[in-house]
Amino acid sequence: MKIFISHKDVDSDVATQINKYLSSRGIQTYLDVLDNSVSGSGKKLTQHLMRQLNQCTHLMTILSKDTRYSWWVPFEIGMASQRRFPIANYLVEGVSLPSFLEYWPRLKRLSDLDKYIIAIHKPEVELNKSFEYKGLEYSDQFHKYLKSIL
Fold it and tell me: How far apart are the C-alpha atoms of 15 and 21, rounded to whole Å?
């Protein structure tokens, strides 16, 4: 399990704080501000981010009022959605979400990360038993479970 932390550059402090919190609890993450190999733009950067996303299993987005000015966060959400990643949004105070982002669980404070960690450690088998809807994919079950404990 490895979590890709997606954020706009102005939210790097929040992303770094979340990264430290998760890492201190043994969760592997990818955060581009810690990646010295990130350079350039265009095709090279796109390929790099795609490689990193392909090495992850979950996506956490940091959403603030500035995210609407990002090209990369929607790109990363789209890639993760296509791969059926479990996605969670961490909301920076004062942000309101467009309706298409309200589907995924919303974390609003650092203490919500503990519930997120519980959800990512809950085995897929347990999630399957927890829900009566047998046709739900793992990511859908994860979203439903995390929402239920938030």
Answer: 10
Please state, as a whole number, how many other Cβ atoms lie within 10 Å of the Cβ of residue 140.
16
Per-residue pLDDT of 86-97, as tens digits, reads 999 999 988 888
Residue with the larger pLDDT of the pair 86 and 33 = 86
- Residue pair 29/88 in contact (Cβ under 8 Å)? The answer is no
What pLDDT score does 36 carry? 64
Model confidence at 136, in pLDDT bands (50, 70, 90)? low
Q: Which domains does the chain have, with CATH numbers?
A: 2-110 (3.40.50.450)
Per the CB < 8 A criterion, the answer to whether 145 and 129 are in contact is no
CB atoms within 10 A of CB 117: 15
CA of residue 98 relative to chain centroid, distance: 17
Distance CA 120, CA 37 (A): 28
Which among 150, 80, 125 has a CA at the least distance from the CA of 141?
A: 125
